Amino acid sequence: MPYIALNTSLEISETQKELIKTELGNLITIIPDKTESKLMIDFSESKTIYKAGSKTSGVFIDLRLFHKSEFEAKKEFTEKTIEMINQKLDISKENIYLTIMEFDNWGSGGTLKL
To answer: Structure pTM?
Structure first.
């Protein structure tokens, strides 16, 4: 199950959330064996974000994956996701960050999976 946390200093309308959710559902399939049907997205908006000591508008995206994926797929996902967020939220690419964490263990369905 991929998990995406999207944290931003901006307020996001329900329409924007729906558009972003749909786009992330499409983009997650770039990563082998990842599907929208198992994707969980967590929006957290109106955060106070500082960059270089100054309050700024920004977006930080945290993608968590069960098992490792190939670099090129993660790179393509990163680039397309940043481009999409830039377009949907009208925020500079320089203020959009994305990290990817990969886990060998993942708890779901009442148990821990390997």
So the answer is: 0.95
Distant-in-sequence, close-in-space partners of 29: CB < 8 Å, separation ≥ 6 = 35, 36
- 3-class SS at 32? coil
Sort strands 3-8 and 40-44 into parallel, antiparallel or unpaired. parallel
List the domain boundaries for the chain. 3-113
CA angle (59, 62, 64) in 5-degree steps: 165
Amino acid identity for residue 98 in this structure? L
Domain 3-113 has CATH 3.40.50.20: no
Tens digits of residue pLDDT in 31-58: 999 999 999 999 999 999 999 999 999 9
Q: List the beta bridge partners of residue 99.
A: 62
Map residue 33 onto helix, strand or coil.
coil
